[in-house]
Amino acid sequence: MRGHVAKKGKRYYAVVYEGVDPATGKDSHRWYAGGRTRKEAERVLTELIKRQHAGDYRAPERITLETYLLERWLPMKRSQLRPSTFDSYERNLKNHVIPKIGALQLQRLTPEDLDGLYADLLTGGRRNGSHGRLGPKTVRYVHGIVRKALADAHRKGTVSRNVADLADPPKASAWRRPEMLVWTAPQLRQFLEEISEHRLYGAFFLAANTGMRRGEVLGLRWKDIDFDTARLSVQQALVNVAYRLELADVKTRSGRRTIDLAGRTIAVLGEHRQQQHQEQLLVGQPDNAERLVFANPDGSPVHPDYFSQVFDRHLARSALPRIRLHDLRHTHATILLQAGVPVKVVSERLGHANPAFTMTVYQHVLPGMQADAAAMFSATVFGKS
């Protein structure tokens, strides 16, 4: 392979000689975008020569980024991703990437094109059908999708380099975790007393007493609960994929876990089972261990959005502080940590990957725990003053 670096305007290109064009009898050259410096273009040329010697080089196709993402890359990923993940990739590409830069030629895509995309998404630029302003965390997620797609294109020789590696998405430090709102133990007890007459009381009680996620609670089956040992097994979750409800395996190995239950929780689940049995008799539904613990009278899943709406509507009428349904999970963890339960145990109940992540999420609890530890150490060494 023969090639050289050339400058056109303010940009440098790797120019590759591809032989004589049989149609015109003239030398044929192909230009690859290099960047704003000669060094960047030289790196592209070196990579192209290396691919040619390895037998991986092929002349690029003139396709747009939209064609590559929606007609080639996404269909290939469908069998490799969880349905909810695939739906998320598709929605983010169609809503945030394609309207802005989808018409660009894949081969001509530059890091600056991606930098411009991220800037537009952060500021809510309205050009080319923007869907409004996004937070740094979401823009980094979009960048991650694009980076994976271009990495596959680079690995297969469709593009000479992954320009997303050179782009500058928002820094992780630009995103701050939303302030965590939790209830005290008396406030949680008050909520459970207030909601006790609702048919989904058992679901709220279980969420509060285990820290399970919304989808995990609504995806729980009766066969996942062992009343004799007072334990349940988290195996699946109810997810909303493209406006359809699906039962999906729990994402991670740590997410698939066993949770010990208190006697009070077992009693609440037992009462709920009796109520559900009465409903089944009324509608003619047979008993089934595969049946969801928290379901509509006909056995169909409870929509996760409805579950959240019940929670929000109740709080709108209550004197309790407003929190999200997901904050019941945070409340469970915070109360345990404040009570001195080891972080590792809390991490296992929540299904976190490791205790370090749990400590990062609940670092607001640590100062109080350290104060207690300091007082305990002093009393042990010097005695109580």
General description of the model:
The protein has 14 helices and 8 strands. It is 48% helix and 12% strand. The radius of gyration is 28 Å and the shape is elongated. By secondary structure, it is of the alpha+beta class. It has 3 domains: 53 residues; 110 residues, DNA polymerase, domain 1 (Orthogonal Bundle), CATH 1.10.150.130; 187 residues, hpI Integrase, Chain A, CATH 1.10.443.
The number of strands is: 8
Count of helices? 14
In total, the number of domains comes to: 3
CATH topology label of the largest domain = hpI Integrase, Chain A
Overall CATH architecture of the largest domain: Orthogonal Bundle
Widest sheet: strand order?
A: 1-2-3
Strand proportion, as a percent range, falls in: 5-15%
Could you list some keywords that capture this structure?
alpha+beta, about 375 residues, DNA polymerase, domain 1, hpI Integrase, Chain A, 3-stranded antiparallel beta sheet, 3 domains, 14 helices, single chain
